[in-house]
Amino acid sequence: MSNVLIFFYRRLKNSSFNSSTRTLSKLQIRNYAKATSFPDYYQNPIFRKEDQVKLIADSDLKNRATVPVKPPTVSETSSVYFDPLVNKVINHVMEKGNKRLARQLVEKAFENIKRKQIERYHLASTPEEKAKIELNPKDILYKAVENCKPLLQLQPIKRGGITYQVPGPITEKRSLFLAIKWLLETTDEKERTVHFPEQFAWELLEASNNTGKVVKRKQDLHRQCEANRAYAHYRWQ
Amino acid sequence: MSLIGIRQIIPAATKYFRYPLTIGTFQYCTRTTSDPSNVLNDLTDWETLNKKKKISKAMKAYLERAKEHDEFMKRQQFEYNIGKRHLANMMGEDPELFTQKDVERAIEYLFPSGIYDPAARPSMRPPEDVFPARKAAEFDEAGRPHHCLFYTGKPNFFKLLHDAADHLQQLYKYEDQVIRKKATPDPNGNLQLGGSMWVNKDQLEQLLVEKISDLEYDNFKVVMERLVSLPYSYRYKDFIEKFRKPLAVQKFALEIPKPNYDEEGRAYITTYECLRKKARGDVTIRSPGTGKITINKKDITYFDDVQSREQVLFPLIFTGMQNRVDVECNVEGGGPSGQSGAIRWGIAWGLRSFVDKDMLQQMQVAGLLTRDHRRRERKKPGQPGARKKPTWKKR
């Protein structure tokens, strides 16, 4: 019954619109139960040009074209400006789904990096010194994250009523997560007058030089793991 | 969604669900009620029969049940036909030419339902769809079962596993023979399973006419995966493909429309019903162009944020057509993300007429030609959101 009402309401509402939009809205809209995700046989899309070149080289494209593929998400494009790691960092910066602001902040941080590096480039006197300075903020982000990634982790394991901090290997995914998390946590320890993009740019530059608080945190963790080597056997005993 | 749209979707869905039923010649399926006397002649042990000279109690009970079921189905069929006639008369159509498709359309029209779950909406289907098929007698008049695996309780299922295991052994043997002969494997004989998947549990149950548990279904999958993984598995292609179900047909390469031509002699194509989230729109692509984009009579600055603009440009940049076509779109409803998504799909769908076959395949692999049908998931009663639950308190 309510559907019929909605239908007529829409017709009434749209009668004043121009003809092209009216033909669209005349169709009765009914909210059917729809799947909120794709079935598991849908493959992930390969939308970046460089990945597709690989597929074509392996002559795998034809086989892949017969399988249903999920559409790329709203933030993914084949544009040269899209980068998976940058997207990841933006998602970590994001609060309450405000992606637009998160993206603005990260891009502002990149701008700050670029400005600082160009300033340094022009201050450098010799060509060798100039060649050493990395100007691409994306490369600096990659370098910074790589330098912050821990190689080991401490797991609390309870044995005989005592919780031991047991060192062990870390997965690639968790290592990346910790690196980004630490970078952002360190950025939050700033004065109120300093804005996020400035501080984040500074942290990234520090980390890419293998100095700074985040790298120190990683080294501390490694030191702790080294000190707790005696507990390592608790992982399997 | 329009009524017309639904009508287009429903026959496809019924075809899909009926698919396992159409394989009547399937060898594990004893459901087809063949002439009982014929079966009995072949398989009855006459010596035992002569000794007893009586129909066993099991057979008697079965015959009674079969008769009852036949009568029940006949009654149901009669009622269904009457219902169909009534519907046809109500719709003012010829009852003789009224098909199941028309029945569904009539019910959609006469009993409009806003119920969320499609299974709970009113429907009228033929009785053979509603009531599951039954097995024919599995034993002879003396009460002795025909099937060697009868006492497993699920003879068809275990026969299937047995056959698969047998095929595995045969393949191992064959592989050894090939190695011994030092022959090279046949390059043409390989299994192409990319476009299909294993039948799901319900479909397998329909194929076997037996109820199986989740664990048994997993076992079925394990065995079949193992069979498929062998290098010479193409020798049992028929056996394997019986349990494969084709994935959704890839329409992208089939029905590409020819572009129309306007007064200026430019080729153009309009894609209607570009949907994403709550947004809907139409997209027109004109072929010799300069890359001009018009969205609701504005340029690309219609979208404030960069992400949405990138989404609109995505298919154009991907195909390298950003300076060779003009795009005009009308969108309404939804937010920037939904509207840009709708336009993205519309542009990609329209560009099919202007790109070559390789690019089509690339677009398919990139997922540009897949309609994103996902919608906001509804809030559930008793919890604050679609999935979110209140904080757990012990008491």
From TrEMBL, chain A:
Q: Output the Gene Ontology cellular-component terms.
A: ribonucleoprotein complex; ribosome
Q: Which UniProt keywords apply?
A: Ribonucleoprotein, Ribosomal protein
- Ranges where the Small ribosomal subunit protein uS7 domain occurs: 72-229
Q: Which InterPro entries match?
A: Ribosomal_uS7, Ribosomal_uS7_dom, Ribosomal_uS7_dom_sf
Q: Please tell me whether the keyword Thylakoid is annotated for this protein.
A: no
Keyword presence, Ribosomal protein: yes
- Which species does this protein come from? Bombyx mori
Protein name as catalogued:
Small ribosomal subunit protein uS7 domain-containing protein
Q: Hey, which family's this protein in?
A: Belongs to the universal ribosomal protein uS7 family.
User: An example of a Gene Ontology BP annotation on this entry?
Assistant: translation
UniProtKB/TrEMBL annotation, chain B:
What is the superkingdom listed in this entry's lineage?
A: Eukaryota
Q: Where in the cell is it found?
A: Mitochondrion
Q: Which Pfam families match?
A: Ribosomal_S9
Q: Return the Gene3D superfamilies for the record.
A: 3.30.230.10
Keyword terms, alphabetized? Mitochondrion, Ribonucleoprotein, Ribosomal protein, Transit peptide
One GO cellular component assignment for this chain's record is:
mitochondrial small ribosomal subunit
Location, primary (coarse class)? mitochondrion
What GO annotations for molecular function exist for this entry?
RNA binding; structural constituent of ribosome
- List all Basic residues biased stretches: 372-395
Q: Which GO terms describe its biological process?
A: translation
Q: Where is this region: Disordered?
A: 369-395
Query: Which family does the record claim for this protein?
Result: Belongs to the universal ribosomal protein uS9 family.
**Protein name in the entry:** Small ribosomal subunit protein uS9m
